[in-house]
Design goal:
alpha+beta, single chain, five-stranded antiparallel sheet, elongated, six-stranded mixed sheet
């Protein structure tokens, strides 16, 4: 029995010694009171634009990740979703950390590409956490479930990264757990030593009875009864060892594995970032209006919206060289954002807002970003009346085949129908397909009036007005199933000149393109219309707003 107790005590003491050493090293060397274990400063360099971690390297969530970088140049440290980082660095040369082994061994991969400088990373709105500037820069971020990358770059986006980087993971209660393991190891070591070196006291034998010589019998040694109490030292030692083992291996301290590593979609923009995009647009748009600088407009607009802005700036410079009639820009109030989910760039979102300069109308626009390194640009913008029922922004998504199959007609067909309706006028058979909205009715009335006034001139024989769809519609599906459609129409208003006569443009926006030039066959005005419409699953198509701009003119 004593040999078994010594053997068990030796085993328990060795286990306790190992646990004590592991707990002490973890508590006082690896972790510390801040609950953080880190790699120490590691030299990370790349001839390319960045050093980044592979998305599957951060495969657990819950703890707080700390990243600190120092470099001779101003340095940027950022954490972002892999969708954004991959788009931002796509096509560029950079270094990717593929694997990490404790205590601080990194396996990296060099990805080839261009070394042209990228837009400064700090100015981009999609970073989950970021720090930027000279000297030491640090970020802390509670790791979320998903695919995220850590990026270290030069602050100006230039190639040639060379930085000292420290990665640390802070797990709440880790230091206390290490102390518990350390204390449990000491306790196991102490109990093991007790079992080895402290002898168990034997119970005294009962007194030998005195008998007469004639009846003397051999005295047998005392044997305790089978049900008498046994020493409990072994039982206590086993219990303590079990508690220590459970404490050291408790699963509650292990961060959970990510479950959405394969889910690679994200909203195009957050509400706060969408509002910031619109605020910046209003500020730059004000400068565009004052300077009539079409080049500056390219930093905030694209597509048909930019085409209309260029035309407007050209006409303003021609007809108002002194800039006396420049307009101020609207500011936006009560902004709402409809941000669909995307798996890759380009991304789009739709916005609604009230206008500070016109309470009777609101803004309805489409914004697009080609890649993560480019700015958000306004591609469509119309101003529906406040009385128009614009679909809700919450739950807006990009259309699927199922969504499109539920519509009574495709957006391209609706655009063709609208072009035919506007070309033929109120008497068109296409009128039955549309709700008589205010803007639609106004355009029809204006064009009918224009035709009538021009034909009344003795030098004009006939007038033709032709609308055509141009480009591909942009479609969103609202939560109520309505299709919110943005499309563009060109218009050519053509006047035939009576034989033997001539005509010319003398005033109006079209005269910026051709003034006092005599034309003997035709006069021509070119327009670009931005249109927003709603195609419901049932019922007629409803035009929300039409925005018109003269974009050319002349004759033959």
């Amino acid at each position: 029995m004593r040999v078994a107790r010594i053997a068990f005590g030796l085993l328990l003491a060795l286990v306790g010694l190992l646990i004590t050493a592991a707990g002490g090293v973890a508590a006082f060397w690896l972790v510390g009171p801040d609950n953080t274990v880190d790699t120490g400063a590691q030299s990370l360099a790349s001839k390319g634009l960045a050093v980044m971690t592979a998305p599957d390297l951060i495969d657990r969530h819950g703890p707080t990740l700390h990243v600190t970088a120092t470099a001779a140049k101003p340095v940027f440290v950022g954490i972002g979703q892999d969708i954004d980082v991959a788009s931002y660095l796509g096509g560029s040369q950079y270094t990717r950390i593929m694997h990490f082994d404790l205590p601080a061994t990194f396996d990296s991969q060099q990805l080839t590409g261009t070394v042209a400088a990228l837009p400064a990373p700090a100015g981009l709105d999609w970073w989950t956490a970021k720090a930027n500037g000279p000297g030491k820069q640090s970020v802390g971020w509670q790791i979320a479930d998903g695919r995220y990358d850590v990026v270290v770059m030069n602050a100006d986006g230039s190639p040639g990264v060379d930085a000292k980087v420290t990665f640390g993971v802070e797990i709440e209660g880790l230091f206390g757990t290490c102390l518990m393991v350390f204390g449990g190891g000491l306790l196991a070591l102490f109990i093991g030593l007790l079992l080895m070196f402290v002898r168990r006291r034997r119970q005294p034998l009962p007194p030998v009875p005195v008998v007469k010589p004639l009846n003397l019998q051999p005295v047998m040694p005392y044997t305790p009864p089978a049900d008498s109490p046994r020493p409990s030292s072994v039982r206590r030692a086993v219990g303590v060892a079990t508690v220590v083992l459970l404490t050291a291996t408790g699963c509650s301290g292990i961060p959970p594995k990510n479950v959405s590593q394969e889910v690679t979609t994200k909203p195009a923009v957050t509400l706060a970032d969408g509002q910031a995009v619109m605020d910046r647009y209003a500020e730059v748009r004000g400068r565009v209006n004052q300077t009539r600088d079409a080049k500056l407009a390219e930093s905030i607009e694209a597509g048909p919206r930019l085409e209309q802005s260029r035309a407007g700036a050209f006409i303003s410079r021609k007809l108002d060289p002194a800039g006396k009639d420049t307009a101020s820009a609207d500011s936006y109030e009560d902004i709402e954002i409809g941000a669909p989910e995307f798996a890759a760039y380009p991304m789009k979102f739709v916005s609604t807002a009230k206008l500070s300069t016109d309470p009777t109308r609101g803004q309805l626009g489409v914004w697009e970003r080609k890649n993560a390194g480019s700015p958000w640009l306004l591609t469509h913008a119309v101003f529906p009346l406040a009385t128009e029922n614009v679909p809700p922004m919450d739950g807006v998504r990009m259309p699927t085949k199922t969504d499109m199959a539920k519509l009574p007609l495709l957006p391209q067909a609706a655009g063709g129908n609208l072009a035919q309706y506007l070309s033929e006028g109120p008497a068109s058979k296409q009128a039955a397909r549309f709700v008589a909205s205010t803007d639609l009715t106004q355009v029809l009335a204006n064009r009918a009036k224009d035709k009538q006034s021009q034909v009344a001139k003795d030098y004009i024989s006939t007038v033709t007005d032709t609308f055509r769809p141009t480009g591909q519609p942009t479609v969103f599906i609202a939560s109520n199933g309505d299709a919110l459609v943005f499309l563009n129409l060109t218009e050519q208003f053509l006047q035939q000149v009576e034989p033997g006569n001539y005509a010319n443009w003398t005033s109006g926006a079209v005269s910026a393109y051709s003034k006092n030039v005599k034309y003997y066959q035709t006069l021509r005005q070119d327009y670009l219309h931005e249109v927003a419409m709603v195609i419901p699953p049932t019922g007629k198509t409803r035009v929300l707003a039409i925005r018109t701009q003269v974009v050319g003119g002349g004759g033959s």
